[in-house]
Design a protein that fits this description.
The chain is 28% helix and 32% strand. It is built from 8 helices and 16 strands. The strands form 3 sheets. The chain has a 7-stranded antiparallel sheet with strand order 6-1-2-5-4-3-7. A 7-stranded mixed sheet has the order 11-10-9-8-12-13-16, with helices on both faces. It has a two-stranded antiparallel ribbon with strand order 14-15.
Amino acid sequence: MVKILKKELLVPNIHFMVLESDVIHLNAKAGEFVVVRADEKGERIPLNLVDWDEHSISVVFMEVGTSTRKLGCLQPGEMIADLAGPLGKPTEMVTDKRILALGGCYGIGALYPVLRAFKENGNTVITAIEARSSFLLYWQEKLKKYSDELFEITRDGTKGFVGHVDKFLNEYLTKTSVDMIYAQGCTYLTYLVSQTTKPMGIKTVVGLNPIMIDATGMCGVCRVIINGETKFACVDGPEFDGHAVDWENLLTRRHIYINEERQSLSFYECEKYG
C-alpha cells in the first residue's frame, strides 16, 4: 500500500498526485514512467513521472475509464494498492540543440521533467502547450522556468495561438528552425505532430501511451510497430521516432476495448452512486 501525500485538480478532469516513495527517486530519469493500481481490483495504469524527490514521486493523470476514475476519487492520506517504477527508457538526451517541445492534456505535466533535463544539458528549449480552451491549460509558470520561450495554443482562440498543433507548427517553422521536436500527450496529438513534421524532415520524438499491463516486456500488450518491427512501449519506449511509428495500427489498438471500458465505467458509477 502506498500513501497519497497530495492531490490537486489542475484543470477539469486532470489531476496532480504526489505518492509516498523513498526508493524510486534513486533511479528516476526524465521520460520514464511508473505503474499504479488504485485498488486490489484495479488495472495497472502507466503514468509519466513528472517529478520526484527523496520522499515522493509525482504524476499527472486524466480521468478516462474506471481505474483513473477510482484514482481521481482518492484523497490525501488514503492509500493506493501498488506503485512500481521507474520503468521504460529515459529520454535520449542531446546537448546544444534548439528543441521545440509540445504538450497537450496530461502531456503538459509529462513535459516538465524533460524540459528540465533538456535545459540542464545546455539546449535551447521552446515550449508550446495546447488545449481546446484556455481554462484547460496549466503549469505555465513551472514550464517557463526551463523554457526560453513558451507559447499557448487554444483551438477556440481564448488564449495564445488559435488552432491546433499542426497549424502552429506550420506557421512557427516557416519563421524559425529547430533541430528537434519533442511531443507528449494523447495519441492524436503525437500523431498530428509527427505527420506535420515528417515532410519537413525534422527529427521528432514522441511519447506513446498504448494499452499496457505488466510494463516489463512479458505480456506484449503494449506492442507498437516501429519501422516495420514490433517493439514493446514498456521496455523499448515509451518514446520513439514519431516518423517511424505505424500510427494506423496504434490508433486501432488504442480503441480495441472501448466498448468494454464504457461498460466497466458505467457499472462502477452505478455501484458507487446508485
